[in-house]
Amino acid sequence: MTGDFNIRNSLWDLSFLHHSSISNDLIIITDSFNLSLSVPTNQISIRYTDNINDSNLTIDLVFLQCDSPALNNHSIHPKWHLSSDHALLTVMIPISEEVINMCKSTIQKDSTEEAQFVKDTINTIKNLNVLNLSDIHTLENVVNDFAKNMDDVWNKNAKLTNITWHSKSWWDNHCSCELKKYRSSKSLED
Predict the structure, then answer these.
(1) Are strands 73-77 and 35-37 parallel, antiparallel or unpaired?
(2) pTM value?
(3) CA 137, CA 115: separation in Å to the nearest integer?
(4) Looking at residue 57, what DSSP letter applies?
(5) What distances in angstroms separate CA 152 from CA 120, 131, 186, one per listed residue?
(6) Sign of dihedral through CA atoms 69, 72, 77, 80?
(7) Residue 149 needs a FRET pair 20 to 30 A away by CA distance; which of 51, 53, 58, 161 works?
(8) Which run of H or of E encompasses 90?
(9) To the nearest 5 percent, what fractions of the chain are helix, strand and coil?
(10) Crossing angle of helices 112-126/136-157, nearest 10°?
(11) How far apart are CA 19 and CA 8, in angstroms?
């Protein structure tokens, strides 16, 4: 959360010697959103005045997620203010690479694979050895075996399909045919 809060306080402006009760309210509100006052990497004024009788101010504040090692400070860029009387504030947000699966494992509803999956699931449950569940260790073993067997049943019956913009649960061959019809005719009726 960032902005021109228009509040002077000794907490964020070292040239200002007073503390305001309004700033206490601001800190309480931001804390309720798990945000804390960010410390700039360069401790300089943010708002610049043309009047020599007024002092430069620090009234633009940045609040970042508490206890975040990746988001813990911001930078002030006084040379980037152009015609504004406020300096630009920036926060570096690290973006980690993310693997996006382009395939998903599915079982088509009302298919022979679904029927076989249900049969295999019933057999897996029937074959669970639950006669001697006398301690937590035995229970954990049964649960782990069940989970492994269900993974095997799923993998045996599921098919890998590519994820596309058509990958909706309701999309079927009829939808594909209608789309093809529209693309060839370009008619609004289609």
Answers:
(1) unpaired
(2) 0.45
(3) 34
(4) B
(5) 10, 23, 46
(6) positive
(7) 161
(8) strand 88-90
(9) 35, 15, 50
(10) 160
(11) 8
Instruction: Give the mean model confidence (pLDDT) for residues 76-83.
Output: 75
Task: Report the CATH fold assignment for 2-90.
Answer: Deoxyribonuclease I; Chain A (3.60.10)
Residues in the chain: 190
- Select from 55, 57, 44, 50 the least CA-distant residue to 4: 57
- List, for residues 46-77, the tens digit of each pLDDT value: 666 665 655 666 677 888 887 777 777 788 78
CB of 71 closer than 8 Å to CB of 41: no
Q: Both tokens of residue 133?
A: 């569940």
Any idea which residue has 């005719």 for tokens? Answer: 185
Residue type, 152: D
Q: How far apart are CA 72 and CA 87, in angstroms?
A: 19
Residue extents of the structural domains in the chain: 2-90, 103-185
Torsional sign, CA 144, 150, 154, 156: positive
> Do residues 78 and 87 touch, judged by C-beta distance below 8 A?
yes
